[in-house]
Amino acid sequence: MNICDMSEKLKGMLSHKRYKHTMGVLSVARRLAERYNADLEKVELSALLHDCGKDMDSAEMHEYVSRNDIKLDDIEARQLELAHGAVGAYLAMTEFGVADSEVLSAIRFHTTGKIDMTNVEKIVYLADFIEEGRKYPGVQTLRELSFEDLDSAILLSFDNTIRHVISQKKILHTRTVEARNFILEQMENMRGAK
């Protein structure tokens, strides 16, 4: 299945608003891939399919996860809005024929991040946060930084996510904290090596 066919199929799976967001993510992800010389095909697939599991309500999500034996961690199981990454990776495999592990990982972890992200994973994570439809304080700064320094943008994005989740009094996924600490340590090691 090519990207045009996938896009048409996806249009039938998502609300108009979610599809528009997805096209915005795809657009900015392509520009980031060019800027950072990332694998364009992997970035396009990951960005296009990142939210393919998002438009299920909690009951549908729970039933779908159970029926397909999708493995969720404890936090995802308690906060099903975080499960759409795992569900999306499963749908990408089963409904869209995606077999590439990096693409599936980018879809799986596009909401929380993870330790030692590849550039494809970082680009999809950031594109989801900075696409043109996003309106929140600081988004323009993050957009600009995303095209200047990928790792600094990822760090700022993690910081913003952590502050937002805390302000909502929700459970913060430990994967985000671990990913933030990992990238911060990498940046500090690079500065120390200079």
Would you kindly provide a written description of the structure presented here, covering whatever features stand out?
GO terms for molecular function: bis(5'-nucleosyl)-tetraphosphatase (symmetrical) activity; metal ion binding; nucleotide binding. It comes from Peptoclostridium acidaminophilum DSM 3953. This is bis(5'-nucleosyl)-tetraphosphatase (symmetrical). The protein is 69% helix and 0% strand. The chain has 194 residues and is mostly helical. It has a single domain (3-193), classed as Hypothetical protein af1432, CATH 1.10.3210.10. The N and C termini lie far apart (46 Å).
Question: Which spans have pLDDT < 50 for at least 5 consecutive residues?
Answer: none
The helix fraction, in percent, is 55-70%
- Taking the alpha carbons of the first and last residues, their distance comes to 46 Å
Cα gyration radius (Å): 16 Å
| Helix-strand category | mainly alpha
Architecture, CATH level 2? Orthogonal Bundle
Largest sheet: none
CATH fold category name: Hypothetical protein af1432
Average pLDDT, rounded to a whole number, is 95
Which class in CATH terms?
Mainly Alpha
- Tally of structural domains: 1
- Beta-strand portion reads under 5%
Order of helices and strands: HHHHHHHHHHH
Shape: globular
